[in-house]
Predict the structure.
Amino acid sequence: SMCVISGAADGVVRAIDVTTGKFLCSCKTPAGIQCVAVTPDGSVLIGSSDKMVRQLTRKLDRLLLEVTGLRSGVTSLIILPDGKSAVFGCGDGSIKQFHFSKLWSD
């Protein structure tokens, strides 16, 4: 089924079924969420105010990856068509592209 993923300033990521409106799952992260993107296999990337990007499983039950070293909070992100890299925009105006060596996976 298709779902909508949302993130909030309280650090909670939620998944809701598009067809039924039913709440599917959620998880709490350490910082306010400013953007979300879904990878080709359904895992979830979240950009947060604590200068990090996190990758979670599609069920939001496990952290797969953290990207650190950014200079300010992540305000936007997009998965590139290759499905293995992403571009992040930060609050200080910087843009970073990351190529991930592992495949997006659960």
